[in-house]
Write a structure and sequence with these properties.
mainly alpha
């Protein structure tokens, strides 16, 4: 494997070049991270938006549409199209809120959970292999880096969401 430092652009200051290399690595890593699920989703006629909805609804059963819109930072119209497909094809169900009947709570169906887990399995395997190559402290360093990449004013909310999602997951059996 080539040493990334040996490929540096001599016309840029080294710190700037390192950051640019990091940006490029992030683009390529993301391409491959989503590429595995993209191939499976194509067989269903779904895209990345469907994957993101399935992922978050699976991780947080009972997620409201408003919460999902806030997480995904997309328009209600964009979510509506994707959610309608997932509901019509039996991957997600929408239920009324117990206290507020106007509220729409989202849940994956067994079919939706199976697809979400299949996609997550591909990405989990990729991340586990990468972390194993880097050694025992890699997970903590990666989490610190990714957290630092989130807008500072949103970090606490994101970390709370992740903690709640971990607790909300049903046990696998």
């Amino acid at each position: 494997m080539a040493d990334i430092k040996s490929l540096a652009n001599p016309h840029l200051p080294s710190e700037e070049e390192e950051v640019r290399q990091g940006i490029e690595l992030l683009f390529f890593a993301y391409r491959d991270f989503v590429g595995d699920p993209d191939r499976i989703l194509a067989d269903y006629g779904f895209g990345r938006a469907h994957h993101r909805v399935l992922h978050f609804v699976d991780r947080r059963p009972g997620l409201t549409i408003a919460e999902l819109l806030d997480i995904l930072k997309i328009t209600k119209q964009s979510l509506g199209r994707v959610l309608k497909q997932l509901i019509d094809q039996g991957y997600v169900v929408q239920k009324e809120g117990a206290n507020d009947r106007r509220q729409r709570l989202l849940y994956v169906t067994p079919k939706g959970e199976a697809l979400a887990m299949k996609l997550a399995g591909l990405q989990t395997g990729r991340i586990a292999r990468a972390l194993a190559e880097l050694g025992p402290s890699a997970h903590d360093a990666a989490c610190r880096f990714l957290t630092a990449m989130i807008n500072p004013e949103q970090r606490d909310a994101v970390l709370r969401f992740i903690a709640r999602a971990d607790r909300a997951r049903r046990p696998r059996g």
